[in-house]
UniProtKB/TrEMBL annotation:
CDD domains: AdoMet_MTases
Protein name as catalogued: Demethylmenaquinone methyltransferase
One Pfam family hit: Ubie_methyltran
GO molecular function: demethylmenaquinone methyltransferase activity
Binding site for S-adenosyl-L-methionine: T72, D90, D121, A122, S138
E.C. designation(s): 2.1.1.163
Gene source species: Microbacterium aquimaris
Catalytic activity: a 2-demethylmenaquinol + S-adenosyl-L-methionine = a menaquinol + S-adenosyl-L-homocysteine + H(+)
Biological pathway: Quinol/quinone metabolism; menaquinone biosynthesis; menaquinol from 1,4-dihydroxy-2-naphthoate: step 2/2
Positions of region (Disordered): 1-21
Length: 251
């Protein structure tokens, strides 16, 4: 860059301040290759995690389901196969545009008619109270600057008796496995990310955000404090990921 050249306003990566504009801009920049990169870096486990999340949501035809932090809509497509009306919401316009290109009305074959894409801030959702039968969020709550506010917003837009499923990176309970996981994140993942990602710096943020994120029981407490009941979780892949479930109290 020459001394007179303007600095780029596009953030290469977010930081633990989780400024919404920086996080959104970071995801805009990696949207095209995001799903492929995730599959490579997770050693294919992302597909298993997505299938487990879909089973936990248990979508049914005729239901209305919110998939928040949907990215390009891979998780939303899995839910929409049930026949449910699925809203894929995200605060990254770039991710949503990629999702529309792949699965929207202009996609080959006309896309998926029961899937729609909406730009949304997790802390101020643009939906009515009690609008959804189920709400879910995969690997997105960790990127929200006020996650407990987001959990309250998810409660607000869910019908009484409706379901919550949160799939998020967590902390392996086994100390030996935790060390192996840390070695992979600190030494292997950055090297692989430089090869397969258009923005390897974004995956430095991934490591930082995982290390900074609370453990399974802490997140359970946050979900209860937001007003959800029947809160439970189960570990996937040795606790690398945890699947949290809860229900909105009946009216």
């Amino acid at each position: 860059m020459t001394p007179d050249a303007p600095e780029s306003t596009e953030p290469n990566r977010a930081d633990l301040g989780k400024d919404p504009a920086r996080v959104s801009g970071m995801f805009d920049g990696v949207a095209a290759g995001y799903d492929r990169t995730n599959t490579v870096l997770s050693l294919g486990n992302d597909r298993m995690w997505r299938a487990a999340t879909t089973r936990a949501v248990a979508p049914k035809a005729g239901e209305r389901i919110l998939d928040l932090a949907a990215g390009t809509g891979a998780s939303s497509v899995s839910l929409a196969r049930s026949g449910a009306q699925v809203v894929a919401a995200d605060f990254s316009p770039g991710m949503l545009a990629e999702g529309e290109r792949r699965h929207g009305a202009a996609a080959p074959g006309g896309g998926i008619p029961n899937l729609s894409f909406v730009e949304a801030d997790a802390t101020a959702l643009p939906f009515d109270d009690a609008e959804f039968d189920a709400v879910t969020m995969s690997f997105g709550l960790r990127n929200v600057n006020e996650p407990r506010v987001a959990l309250g917003e998810l409660l607000r837009v869910t019908k009484p008796g409706g379901r919550l499923v949160i799939c998020e990176f967590s902390h392996p309970p086994s100390s030996a496995f935790r060390k192996l996981y840390s070695f992979y994140n600190d030494r292997v993942l950055p090297t692989v990310a430089k090869t397969v990602s258009s923005n390897s710096e974004a995956y430095d943020y991934l490591n930082e955000s995982i290390r900074d994120w609370p453990d399974q029981r802490t997140l359970m407490g946050w979900i209860r404090e937001a007003g959800w009941t029947g809160v439970a979780y189960r570990n996937l892949t040795g606790g690398i990921v945890a699947l949290h479930r809860a229900t909105k109290p009946a009216a």
